[in-house]
Amino acid sequence: MGDLAKIFKAYDVRGVVPDEFDEAAAEAVGAAFVEVTGAGAAVVAHDMRESSGPLAAAFIRGARSRGADIVHAGLGSTDLLYYASGSLGLPGVMFTASHNPARYNGMKMCRAGAVPIGGDSGLTEIRDRAAELVGVTAPPVGDLVERDLLQGYADHLRSLVDLSAVRPLKVVVDAGNGMAGHTVPAVFDGLPIELVPLYFELDGSFPNHEANPIEPANLVDLQRAVVETGADLGLAFDGDADRCWVIDERGASVSPSTVTALVAARELAKHPGSTIIHNLITSLGVPEIVREHGGEPVRTRVGHSFIKAEMARTGAVFGGEHSAHYYFRDFWFADSGMLAAMHVLAALGEQDGPLSQVVAAYSRYHASGEINSTVDDQDKALRQVREAFESRGRFDELDGLTVTGSGWWFNLRASNTEPLLRLNAEAADQTTMTAIRDEVLAIVRKVSV
């Protein structure tokens, strides 16, 4: 087993199995989780990776050794785990490495009601206590109950977005051999949806493509299938099915900012005057559309812990991120790609036009998408970009460096876990966006060589 400090990240646990993360570590984390949180009971679920079941079983041994009763939900998506935590009123742990390659695994932890546990809310203490408990074993004291929560999860989502009366829709879903292959059939069952499944076989080796829809190469099969089958839209999920990417009937990608604006408008129709959270990478169109629909937009840093904390603080009804994470007050302020997808299906199915026409009203700007550059001296690169733009726009440093000019903006920020600088740029027209994007990249990549 490797160094626990290496696999405990800002929001979760993630590492290579077994070199960095093994069953001994998982068992120690289980014991530490109970000690630090004081949990008398917890719910545990896991994804389809080969190592997920054994790691979850080891965590359960550790947790039960400290007296906690465990509800084992078995196979599930991350948002199913949030549903379990919220509906049962229990702390929860999900074993997944999300979109990471097959050799990785990890854990996402929350308190009762799906309240996230991050570095500043207990994760550091769990890490430190687990390091002391590695190799320390004890017999189980707490009870273990196996419980299938899939139907309850599906019923709950359908209670939040009613799709029973939409017009018939043909939907291609690319599960990427991840957990959407398990959850989508249950959610769509009985609805007026003709499902065209792609890669629904649960396979943690990801034999077809990475389960990471933010990478355009992983959307190619879905885009082709939508066009070839004449489908109304396509949906792509990541490995643990908490993120969802949307493809329109032409095979074109619908940006998460556009989805955020669409869902925000729908939520504001139900909850007039509510707050909507968006991170600083989402389109300028999002706060504009929120205000036009009578809502109050609030801008945050990137990262689910910041989004969830701000949603809880403001009572926001909805929050969206550029990475296709979508958060709902009615879902314990937790994120659910499936719930966002259902809003898109409802918006499409409640009228007769194609999805491209529906989303056009929510897409106003030209965006670069997130572009990563490997840069060892990130401070130097940021400094040189700042110098190049210091007389051309407004600066803020809520998260990295954001520069806003006339009809354009860009954000350049460092990765929390890798030697990367991440660039997002947007402008009112394609020419301006391309020029800003290329100028910033030229500076950054000159530093990196």
Automatic annotation (TrEMBL):
Residue ranges annotated for the Alpha-D-phosphohexomutase C-terminal domain, each copy included: 370-441
Report the residue ranges that make up the Alpha-D-phosphohexomutase alpha/beta/alpha domain in this protein: 6-130, 152-251, 261-365
The organism's place on the tree of life at top rank: Bacteria
UniProt record, GO biological process = carbohydrate metabolic process
Q: Which cofactor does it need?
A: Mg(2+)
Keyword annotations of the record? Isomerase, Magnesium, Metal-binding, Phosphoprotein
Q: Name one GO molecular function term.
A: metal ion binding
The record's listing under Gene3D superfamilies reads:
Alpha-D-Glucose-1,6-Bisphosphate, subunit A, domain 3 (3.40.120.10), Alpha-D-phosphohexomutase, C-terminal domain (3.30.310.50)
Signal sequence coordinates: none
**Family the UniProt entry places it in:** Belongs to the phosphohexose mutase family.
Can you say what this protein is called?
A: Phosphomannomutase/phosphoglucomutase
Q: What organism is listed for this UniProt entry?
A: Nonomuraea cavernae
UniProt gene name: manB
